Amino acid sequence: MADLFEALSAPARRAILDELRERDGQTLFELCTRLAMKHDLALTRQAISQHLDVLESVGLLTTKRESRYKYHFLNTSPLQAIVDRWLTPKGKDEVS
Amino acid sequence: MADLFEALSAPARRAILDELRERDGQTLFELCTRLAMKHDLALTRQAISQHLDVLESVGLLTTKRESRYKYHFLNTSPLQAIVDRWLTPKGKDEVS
DNA sequence: ACTATAGGCAAGTCATGACTTGCCTGTCAA
DNA sequence: TTGACAGGCAAGTCATGACTTGCCTATAGT
User: Fold this and answer.
1) Does residue A6 sit in helix, strand or coil?
2) Which residues on A lie below 8 Å from B14 (Cβ)?
3) Which of B1, B31, B38, B65 is the most buried (most CB within 10 A)?
4) CB-based burial label for A33 (10 Å; 0-12, 13-18, 19+)
5) Mean pLDDT, to the nearest integer, of A92-96?
């Protein structure tokens, strides 16, 4: 896949971003439980894991493995591309 | 469908937004030809039309029928939701 | 050594969205 | 009124992505 917009198209992945925004650096299991609780997201651990893979592949999150645990960190900078693409004033010949 | 992110997930639809940003208020046929030319987008008129329906349903474009012609106008304001959701500084309890 | 915990790999099901083809409606010009 | 042009409706094909189930690896604790 590896496409930013494609990655954002799944509600579950957006919920993950929301959740990480509230509490950064969670592990897979933490995310599973908290998504089920606060976001009414009842998914398999596998499903969440796959979503995390996608999000990481497009740069929306970074990970850090530490012995048994793998922590997930939100990175919203790729989203800036959206702003740059359509939300900036036009300018006859793109400001380069 | 009627979901902003879902709408953005199709490359063809993003190309349409790009094209309308360059030249607003185009008709379906104008879009067809210009997309084929400048964006290497070889799609049926029907395909484009369906994409336009989706984009309109999520508010990314507005239309104005005028006798034989239907003009399409870009509206990027829904995209602001993305910025508000993830690109704004956090704030312990959402600035409301 | 054994068990529990955290995570990964792989294959399979299922639904939905992208695109096509075929035909129909409406408006303008000769 | 006939033909050309702009657009719409509907059904069908096809691929891909979301999610599951089942099993495997690795680290830590007792």
Assistant:
1) helix
2) 5
3) B31
4) exposed
5) 55
Tell me the pLDDT tens digit for each residue of B6-18. 999 999 999 999 9
A27 CB inside 7 Å of strand C: yes
Closest chain B residue to A1, measured at CA: B9
Is 0.85 topped by the overall pTM? Answer: yes
Residue A11: its H or E element: helix A11-22
Q: How confident is the model at residue A17 (pLDDT cuts 50, 70, 90)?
A: very high
Q: Is A36:A45 a contact under the CB 8 Å cutoff?
A: no
Rounded CA–C1' distance between B30 and D3, in angstroms: 22
Which residues 7-36 of B are in CB contact (within 8 Å) with A? 8-9, 11, 14, 17-18, 21
Is residue A77 within 8 angstroms of chain B, CB to CB? no
